[in-house]
């Protein structure tokens, strides 16, 4: 579904991504793990067109994404729940979800999809009229993912969905990721919590200072001594 080949990104004099090559097959959960500052978020932002690549290729279902506008990329079937949630704090939960569907037409379909999001996140139904800024951290994360789902993506990219959450909420977030995947959505997961990410992933990549240094099935990476020492404690 997604093929990234020899991707390079520069921020001024900083070489943030150095020849990154990876693939996301349809119907799979692929995870990218690594320390803070390794370039994980930069990769997602580049896929979405928010950061300009300086070399390489990003193809989604055979179509080159480099050079497209972000709204064009979303229309192709890609959505991202960004690091830090980035919800609209002065809009209600319902209004935030509608913003996720701004690229789509049809009020009936939008309402149907909001109901679908509410079945995945019942807490959001309870908070539907509440402003986003008054939600707890876990509820804001649910809202960020729900908003991304409103574009009905075929590829959902999640950037640090467990960041700042309590252990119980982290388990809930990963349970929901599994549920969304089970309903047919392909997922690219960026995560510092390597243990949780690799447990749920079909395949994983380890990113260090802008380079892919290891890859393998989630199970193989969990058992790799280098991964265990660096990320699993």
Keywords:
27% strand, globular, four-stranded antiparallel beta sheet, alpha/beta, Rossmann fold, six-stranded mixed beta sheet, 233 residues
Give the strand line-up of the largest sheet: 6-7-8-3-9-10
Residues in helices, as a percent range: 25-40%
N/C terminus separation: 33 Å
Total DSSP helices: 10
Question: Gist?
Answer:
The chain is an alpha/beta fold and 233 residues long.
Describe the protein in words.
The protein is an alpha/beta fold. It has a domain at 1-77 and 155-166 and 187-233: 3-Layer(aba) Sandwich (Rossmann fold), CATH 3.40.50.300. Helix content is 39%, strand content 27%. The chain has ten helices and ten strands. It has helices at 40-47, 70-76, 93-99, 107-120, 122-126, 137-149, 167-182, 194-200, 218-223, 225-232; strands at residues 2-11, 14-24, 29-33, 55-60, 63-64, 78-81, 155-159, 186-191, 203-208, 211-217. It has a six-stranded mixed sheet with strand order 6-7-8-3-9-10, sandwiched between helices. It has a four-stranded antiparallel sheet with strand order 2-1-4-5, covered by helices on one side. The mean pLDDT is 90.
What's the helix and strand layout?
Layout: E1 2-11, E2 14-24, E3 29-33, H1 40-47, E4 55-60, E5 63-64, H2 70-76, E6 78-81, H3 93-99, H4 107-120, H5 122-126, H6 137-149, E7 155-159, H7 167-182, E8 186-191, H8 194-200, E9 203-208, E10 211-217, H9 218-223, H10 225-232
Parallel strand pairs: 3-8, 3-9, 6-7, 7-8
Antiparallel strand pairs: 1-2, 1-4, 4-5, 9-10
Helix pairs in contact: 3-6
């Amino acid at each position: 579904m997604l093929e990234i080949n020899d991707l390079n990104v520069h921020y001024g004099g900083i070489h943030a991504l150095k020849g990154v090559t990876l693939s996301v097959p349809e119907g799979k959960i692929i995870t990218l793990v690594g320390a803070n500052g390794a370039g994980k978020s930069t990769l997602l932002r580049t896929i979405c067109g928010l950061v300009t690549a300086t070399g390489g290729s990003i193809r989604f279902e055979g179509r080159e994404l480099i050079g497209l506008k972000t709204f064009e990329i979303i229309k192709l079937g890609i959505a991202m729940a960004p690091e830090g949630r980035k919800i609209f704090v002065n809009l209600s939960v319902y209004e935030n979800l509608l913003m996720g569907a701004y690229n789509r037409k049809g009020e009936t379909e939008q309402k149907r999809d909001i109901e679908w999001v509410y079945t995945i996140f019942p807490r959001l139904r309870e908070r539907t009229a509440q402003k986003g800024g008054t939600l707890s951290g876990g509820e804001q994360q649910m809202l960020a993912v729900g908003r991304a789902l409103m574009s009905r993506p075929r590829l959902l990219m999640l950037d640090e969905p467990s960041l700042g959450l309590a252990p119980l909420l982290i388990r809930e977030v990963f349970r929901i990721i599994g549920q969304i995947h089970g309903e047919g959505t392909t997922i690219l997961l960026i995560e510092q919590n390597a243990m949780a990410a690799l447990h749920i992933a079909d395949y994983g990549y380890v990113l260090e200072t802008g380079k892919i240094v290891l890859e393998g099935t989630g199970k193989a990476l969990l058992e790799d001594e280098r991964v265990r020492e660096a990320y699993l404690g």
